[in-house]
Amino acid sequence: MKLQQRRISTYFKQELVAKIEANWKKIDVNSEKISRLIDQVVENHTAIDRMVTREEYRKDCDRLLQGQDKMMAILLRLDQERATTKLALIG
């Protein structure tokens, strides 16, 4: 009877060890996946930090448009001066 109990006990131990080893393999695989997810989260976080808010974007666009307006005003004055100089030379 004791021999049979030892066999059963040994069998269950072997089965438990096999299940534990299988679970460790699953844990290793999941750890790798979690590490990749963490890396992706960190990468996304840094990308988000580099992004500008809508308000900042609008301010930048407004500043660019104001600069373009100033350039157009200068170009219009230059064109007017060119026309005036041409008339003065011809007339």
Question: In brief, what are we looking at here?
Answer:
The protein contains two helices and no strands. The protein is 95% helix and 0% strand.
Please explain how this structure is put together.
With 91 residues, the protein is mainly alpha-helical. It has helices at residues 2-50, 54-90. The longest helix has 49 residues, at 2-50. 0% of the residues are buried.
Question: What does the secondary structure layout of this molecule look like, with pairings?
Answer:
Blueprint: H1 2-50, H2 54-90
The average pLDDT score comes to 90
Q: What's the tally of helices?
A: 2
Unreliable stretches (pLDDT < 50, length at least 5) are: none
The residue fraction in helices comes out at over 70%
Count the strands?
0
Rg from alpha-carbon coordinates: 39 Å
**How much of the polypeptide forms β-strand, as a percent range?**
under 5%
Largest sheet: none
**N-to-C SSE string, H for helix and E for strand:** HH
Termini, distance in Å?
Answer: 130 Å
Shape: rod-shaped
Structural class: mainly alpha
